[in-house]
Amino acid sequence: RYNAVYESFFERYRQIDTVSARYAFFQARKLRDEYRYKEVVDLLLPYCTDPDITVEDLSVLATYLARAYAEMSDNDNAELWYAKSAVCDIYCTKHLHMSLAKLAMLLADRGENLLALKYGTIANEEALSYNAEHRIIEISPFLSKVSDEVIYTERRLRIYATFAAVIAFFLLLVAAVALTLLARAYKRTSELNRQISRISQKLEEANILKENYMMHYMVKCTKYIRRVDDTVSGVKQMLKNDGVDKLVAELRKPKYS
Predict the structure, then answer these.
(1) How far is the CA of 67 from the CAs of 25, 61, 80, 97, 103, in angstroms?
(2) 193 Cβ contact partners less than 8 Å away, ≥ 6 residues apart
(3) Average model confidence (pLDDT) across the chain
(4) What SS3 class is residue 19?
């Protein structure tokens, strides 16, 4: 019966107007009911550049295009045209479409729950102000679901943040302990280096003193050997020149005793 009434109304309107955007809407609805969404898009897009189109008609046009794109799984264009329809609704005296709510639902499907909750809340408040029961029935469950998702996400983020803070504190504590141990090790190493430096300096001084003593000993030995050589040479010379008696007499003198 609905289709018959619609066909009758469509036929009467076609006798009056076949070029305006509103007539195109009737055609688009018929195509949509036949699941011919690509033809809906091809039919309505040219009217977007019509400078004489009213804001109300543009809102309807954007809604039809958004639904067609959504049925074709082209969510990017669906979001674009739902957004345009929602903007047009702002300038209309009555908001006849659920563009903002549909946009919120698409955003929720994409995971942008915060933005979806914001748009959904506005759409729900608008439906309540107009007492649009069918909109409230459709928006309220969606709004409840998105709210739960946002709350769950916030709780999960708080848990992650707490966990990250605990890990960061633990890492800072480990870093502080490590720095303390490194500082102590560096201090001890510096003290050992100073001790080694002092010992090396003392060893160097001892080596220098040892060399001086050895040099002094060598000089003394050289002088003693030279004196012995001189004495032996003198004895030989005296024995040769003066004989044994003279040598014995010379050796008995106090300087040899």
Answers:
(1) 13, 10, 11, 12, 10
(2) none
(3) 81
(4) coil
126-147 burial, b for 16+ CB within 10 Å, e for fewer? bbeeeebeebeebbeebbebbe
DSSP state of 25: H
pLDDT tens figures, 130-160: 777 777 787 888 888 888 888 888 898 899 9
Q: Identify the three-state secondary structure at position 122.
A: helix
| pTM attached to this predicted model | 0.53
Which residues in 164-197 are b (16+ Cβ under 10 Å) and which e?
A: eeeeeeeeeeeeeeeeeeeeeeeeeeeeeeeeee
pLDDT at 202: 87
Distance of alpha carbon 251 from alpha carbon 238, whole angstroms: 11
Across 23-37, average pLDDT? 82
Query: Distance between CA 44 and CA 36 in Å, rounded?
Result: 13
CB 40, CB 32: distance < 8 Å: yes
Q: Compute CA 2 distance to the chain's CA centroid, rounded to the nearest angstrom.
A: 58
pLDDT by residue (tens digit) across 203-224?
Answer: 888 888 888 888 888 888 888 8
Alpha-carbon gap, residue 55 to 52, rounded angstroms: 9
Number of H helices, E strands in the chain: 8, 0
The answer to whether 64 and 25 are in contact (CB under 8 A) is yes
- Tell me if residue 199 falls in helix, strand or coil: helix
- Helices 37-44 + 55-71 axis angle, to 10: 150
Q: Which tokens in the block code for residue 33?
A: 């009911």
